[in-house]
């Protein structure tokens, strides 16, 4: 595998079915190392970055926030913000760095995001979201999409989310990623917001019925291939969240099942072997930086769920979490972890 860093490069060929299956943007989880690991398991699934705020790109270290590996394609940049001009500038940067899509976060319910007047609270300002979308679409040639909830607080009327989608669609947005829960802006943590508000998939299905020309992607609580299959009878795509992170080898079935690519998926052992040269190069490139440089744990932490449900999974996780071994900074730790498992696990 050739390991290169991408910026200002032409996008790789994208899968025909595009966003049919995707992995959600998850703060502190779906960083570039996680996405590179996931890409070894599935060639076509669409990936999303952690949310990057416009402030971070306007005033911070742009390469640190936007750098990624060419092998990650297709990959979308999720932005957090509510100022059209700032979002347009940030979207333009995302396109220049080679991302395949710009996604606007209108679904995160955290108080920190609310203080910045973006995230889920934007659902109450549909026209502002439309203005933001238009500004970004005018700035870039790649897709601009919106990720949102089905309602906020105690607003459960279908009309609310229908009107939100309609207003934003009028600004030219054609893809909506819909988390099938309300966002409770006060009183619930982000974790509780992923668990307590009830899932109402029928609302997302109805959006597809009312907006047949729009690409409607369902998100929220999806855990199995059978559930994905059921949802795809009603919507254009399904986005997985925590399940893709905690049980990543589920994605080994995606390319054949949802993209018609019968190329055999890598085994778990092959996935780990493929990650070693990437990890070696990342450690070399980022050695001695601020805070001592990149640590091995920054990459291995994303791999703990690779053998979920298999005999020896606990020994695998223990080896990858061994602080003394991690301090050695040797990616061959991955193979040692696999060797501690029962032979049939790989």
UniProtKB/TrEMBL annotation:
<feature type="domain" description="DUS-like FMN-binding">
    <location>
        <begin position="23"/>
        <end position="334"/>
    </location>
</feature>
<comment type="similarity">
    <text>Belongs to the dus family.</text>
</comment>
<feature type="active site" description="Proton donor">
    <location>
        <position position="108"/>
    </location>
</feature>
<feature type="binding site">
    <location>
        <begin position="25"/>
        <end position="27"/>
    </location>
    <ligand>
        <name>FMN</name>
    </ligand>
</feature>
<dbReference type="InterPro" id="IPR013785">
    <property type="entry name" value="Aldolase_TIM"/>
</dbReference>
<keyword id="KW-0694">RNA-binding</keyword>
<keyword id="KW-0288">FMN</keyword>
<dbReference type="InterPro" id="IPR004653">
    <property type="entry name" value="DusA"/>
</dbReference>
<feature type="binding site">
    <location>
        <position position="179"/>
    </location>
    <ligand>
        <name>FMN</name>
    </ligand>
</feature>
<dbReference type="InterPro" id="IPR035587">
    <property type="entry name" value="DUS-like_FMN-bd"/>
</dbReference>
<dbReference type="GO" id="GO:0102264">
    <property type="term" value="F:tRNA-dihydrouridine20 synthase activity"/>
</dbReference>
<feature type="binding site">
    <location>
        <position position="147"/>
    </location>
    <ligand>
        <name>FMN</name>
    </ligand>
</feature>
<dbReference type="GO" id="GO:0000049">
    <property type="term" value="F:tRNA binding"/>
</dbReference>
<feature type="site" description="Interacts with tRNA; defines subfamily-specific binding signature">
    <location>
        <position position="314"/>
    </location>
</feature>
<keyword id="KW-0820">tRNA-binding</keyword>
<comment type="function">
    <text>Catalyzes the synthesis of 5,6-dihydrouridine (D), a modified base found in the D-loop of most tRNAs, via the reduction of the C5-C6 double bond in target uridines. Specifically modifies U20 and U20a in tRNAs.</text>
</comment>
<dbReference type="GO" id="GO:0010181">
    <property type="term" value="F:FMN binding"/>
</dbReference>
<dbReference type="GO" id="GO:0050660">
    <property type="term" value="F:flavin adenine dinucleotide binding"/>
</dbReference>
<feature type="site" description="Interacts with tRNA; defines subfamily-specific binding signature">
    <location>
        <position position="191"/>
    </location>
</feature>
<feature type="site" description="Interacts with tRNA">
    <location>
        <position position="105"/>
    </location>
</feature>
<dbReference type="InterPro" id="IPR001269">
    <property type="entry name" value="DUS_fam"/>
</dbReference>
<feature type="site" description="Interacts with tRNA; defines subfamily-specific binding signature">
    <location>
        <position position="317"/>
    </location>
</feature>
<keyword id="KW-0285">Flavoprotein</keyword>
<keyword id="KW-0560">Oxidoreductase</keyword>
<comment type="similarity">
    <text>Belongs to the Dus family. DusA subfamily.</text>
</comment>
<feature type="binding site">
    <location>
        <position position="78"/>
    </location>
    <ligand>
        <name>FMN</name>
    </ligand>
</feature>
<dbReference type="InterPro" id="IPR018517">
    <property type="entry name" value="tRNA_hU_synthase_CS"/>
</dbReference>
<protein>
    <recommendedName>
        <fullName>tRNA-dihydrouridine(20/20a) synthase</fullName>
        <ecNumber>1.3.1.91</ecNumber>
    </recommendedName>
</protein>
<keyword id="KW-0521">NADP</keyword>
<feature type="site" description="Interacts with tRNA">
    <location>
        <position position="194"/>
    </location>
</feature>
<feature type="binding site">
    <location>
        <begin position="219"/>
        <end position="221"/>
    </location>
    <ligand>
        <name>FMN</name>
    </ligand>
</feature>
<dbReference type="Pfam" id="PF01207">
    <property type="entry name" value="Dus"/>
</dbReference>
<keyword id="KW-0547">Nucleotide-binding</keyword>
<feature type="binding site">
    <location>
        <begin position="241"/>
        <end position="242"/>
    </location>
    <ligand>
        <name>FMN</name>
    </ligand>
</feature>
<keyword id="KW-0819">tRNA processing</keyword>
């Amino acid at each position: 595998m050739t390991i290169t860093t991408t910026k200002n490069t032409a996008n790789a060929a994208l899968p025909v079915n595009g966003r049919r299956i995707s992995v959600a943007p998850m703060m502190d989880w779906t960083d570039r190392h996680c996405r590179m690991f996931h890409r070894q398991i599935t060639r076509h699934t669409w990936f999303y970055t952690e949310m990057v705020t416009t402030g971070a790109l306007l005033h911070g270290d742009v390469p640190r926030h936007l750098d990624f590996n060419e092998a990650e394609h297709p990959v979308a940049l999720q932005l957090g913000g509510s100022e059209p001009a700032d979002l347009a500038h940030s979207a333009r940067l995302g396109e220049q760095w080679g991302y395949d899509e710009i996604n606007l976060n209108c679904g995160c319910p955290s108080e920190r995001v609310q203080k910045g007047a973006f995230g889920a609270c934007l659902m109450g300002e549909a026209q502002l979201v439309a203005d933001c979308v238009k500004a970004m679409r005018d700035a870039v040639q790649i897709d601009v999409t919106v990720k949102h909830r089905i309602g906020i607080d105690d607003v459960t009327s279908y009309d609310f989310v229908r009107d939100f989608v309609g207003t934003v669609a009028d600004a030219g947005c054609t893809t909506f990623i819909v988390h099938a829960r309300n966002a409770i802006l006060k009183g619930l943590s982000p974790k509780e917001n992923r668990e307590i508000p009830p899932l109402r998939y029928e609302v997302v299905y109805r959006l597809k019925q009312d907006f047949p020309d729009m690409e409607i992607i369902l998100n929220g609580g999806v855990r199995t291939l059978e559930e994905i299959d059921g949802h795809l009878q009603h919507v254009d795509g399904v986005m997985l969240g925590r399940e893709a992170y905690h049980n990543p080898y589920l994605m080994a079935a995606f390319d054949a099942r949802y993209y018609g690519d019968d190329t055999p998926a890598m085994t778990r052992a092959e996935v780990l072997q493929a990650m070693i040269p990437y990890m070696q190069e990342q450690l070399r490139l980022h050695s001695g930086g601020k805070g001592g440089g990149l640590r091995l744990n920054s990459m291995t932490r994303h791999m703990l769920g690779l053998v979920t449900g298999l005999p020896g999974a606990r020994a695998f996780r223990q080896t990858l979490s061994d602080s003394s071994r991690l301090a050695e900074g040797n990616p061959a730790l991955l193979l040692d972890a696999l060797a501690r498992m029962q032979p049939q696990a790989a």
